[in-house]
Amino acid sequence: MNVKRFKPEAARSSGGACSSAQPQVRMNGQMCVKMENCLTRGDSSDLVSVLRSEGLSSITLTRLDQLVTKDLCGLGFSRVLVVLKSLEVLSENRDDLKMLVNHGLAVKVLLWFEAVHDLLISDLQKNSAPLLILTEEFYDYLLAIRTFNSILESLSREQRRLIQNDQNQFQIL
């Protein structure tokens, strides 16, 4: 899998990821407006409703990725928090989680975290409270994954195989 690392400072100066480095996706204009409105209002439950009503497709996730990348470039950390909270709510539903994972959510979240990390270590954003709050949210998300992986590592091969075949594996996640 070929994954480009997002560099916020390079993107801002060169017009890279902040302008159009990602492939542009044509989408329902009304959906884009609804998503933007939810982010502007800070309403994660409305964003969940919009995402579910439009369908959790790769196009929808790509558009969400574009919005997050744009917000990270523009230092819109509170808007990214809304997206993370929405994804947390969506992940509570087994089918939604499965769809999101299949469409590459894990890779996108990791790239978002790398962008936040790069901003955090830059001199310009060292003492940004909103950035620290966003970083904590990412750490919570990644810590949950780490905890799950630690549990899996402590199991025997047979127990791991049973979990893979278990109908409730997404409830564990």
TrEMBL record:
Compositionally skewed regions (Low complexity) per UniProt: 11-21
Origin superkingdom: Eukaryota
Region (Disordered) residue spans: 1-22
Domain Synaptonemal complex protein 2 armadillo-repeat-like per the UniProt entry, residue ranges: 56-149
Pfam families in the cross-refs: SYCP2_ARLD
InterPro entries per record: SYCP2_ARLD (IPR041322)
Protein name stated in the entry: Synaptonemal complex protein 2 armadillo-repeat-like domain-containing protein
Species the sequence originates in: Larimichthys crocea
Upper taxonomic lineage: Eukaryota, Metazoa, Chordata, Craniata, Vertebrata
